[in-house]
Structure prediction request, 400 residues.
Amino acid sequence: MPIPEEKQNKERRQRLMDCALDLFIEKGYFNTAIRDIIVKSGYGTGTFYNYFIDKEDILKALLEDFAEQIISGFSEYWTIEKDLYKRFIETKRVTMEIFAKSERLSEIYSRVAGASDPIDQCIKQFEDKLIDFYSNNIEYGIQKGVFDDVPVPPLAHAILATEKFLLYKWVVLRTISKQEMIEMVVSFHETLAKGLLKSK
Amino acid sequence: MPIPEEKQNKERRQRLMDCALDLFIEKGYFNTAIRDIIVKSGYGTGTFYNYFIDKEDILKALLEDFAEQIISGFSEYWTIEKDLYKRFIETKRVTMEIFAKSERLSEIYSRVAGASDPIDQCIKQFEDKLIDFYSNNIEYGIQKGVFDDVPVPPLAHAILATEKFLLYKWVVLRTISKQEMIEMVVSFHETLAKGLLKSK
Prediction:
C-alpha cells in the first residue's frame, strides 16, 4: 500500500532519494542495501520506512521524478514553438538534453532494465508515462490536420526505443558522445516527421 | 584467442550451444555454470574448451548464429521483392517472424543486456552486425535514387531499437502479443519509409 503523502516531509524524502542515487551509481543498484541508504542519510530506520516500502519503491520514485522532469522540459518548449513539425523535432533536443543532464539517473535507467520482475515494473511505469505523453503529442498533430492519421502507438514506442537505445550507447557503452546521441535522435525525428506530415 | 574452426566438429559445437540455450532459459544465464552445460551435453570438460573459451563465448556464438539467421531470412525475401519501398517495410515482417520463431534466443537477448561488460560486448557485436546490415539496405535505396540522402546511422539505430524494445515487450513483459509486436514494427516502418522516400 502506498504511504500517504501528507505524512511526509519533502526534504527528507528528497534526501533519501539523493543518497540512494549516489549509492546506486557508486556500488550498483544490486549491491546497495536499504541499510546503506539509511546509514548514508543519517536518519533512523523508521524514517526510511515512513517514505519507502523497499528498494524498488525508491527506484520507482526516482524514475517518476525523472519522467516529470522530462515532460515538464518538453512542455516549456511547447509553449514557445507553435509550428508542430518543428516542435516535433526540436522538443527531442530538449528531451535528450534532460536525459544528458541527469546522467546518473540515465545510467541507472539504462543498466537495470531486464534484471528482475519488480524492476521491470518500475521501468515499465516510467516508460508508459513517456509513451503516453509522446502519443498525446502525435495525436494532437493529427487532430490539427498537420500529421497523417496513422497508428500512433507504434511511433510513440519507436521514439522512446530510439531514445533509450542511443542513451545506452552513450551512458553505458560510451561508443557515442553526448552530442552525437542528441544529433542522432534529432536526425531520426526529421525523417520520421517527414513521414508523418500530411500528404498534400 | 579464438579457437581455429578446422579443429571443430560442427555437430558437437551445435550440441553444446543447444544445451547452453536450454539451461539459460531454464535457470537463467547468470545461474548457469559451464559445469552445467558440460554435464547436460554428456561430453567431457576438455571437449567444451575445444569449442568455447568461457560462458560469454558461447553466448556470443549463439547471438552470432542468430544474427546470421536474421540476415539470411531478410536476404531471401530481398531477391523476391524488387520494389525498394515495399521491401523496406515487408522485410521487417520477415525479420520479426524470425525473432518470434527463435523465441528462446530472443528472450536471452532481451534479458541479459546491461548486466555486465563482457555481456554488453556480446550484445554489441550482435547489434552492430544488424545495424550495419540495416544501414547497407538504406544506403542502397539512396544510391538507387529512391530514398532521400539523409544520415543513415540514426535510422539504422532507430530500426534496431524499435525491434528490440517491442521484442522485449512481447517476450519479457508479455504486454503485447506476437502479432501486435510484428504489426507495430511494420506500421512504424510505413511512416519511416514515407519520410525516406525522395521528395518529388
Chain A has two domains: 5-51, 56-196.
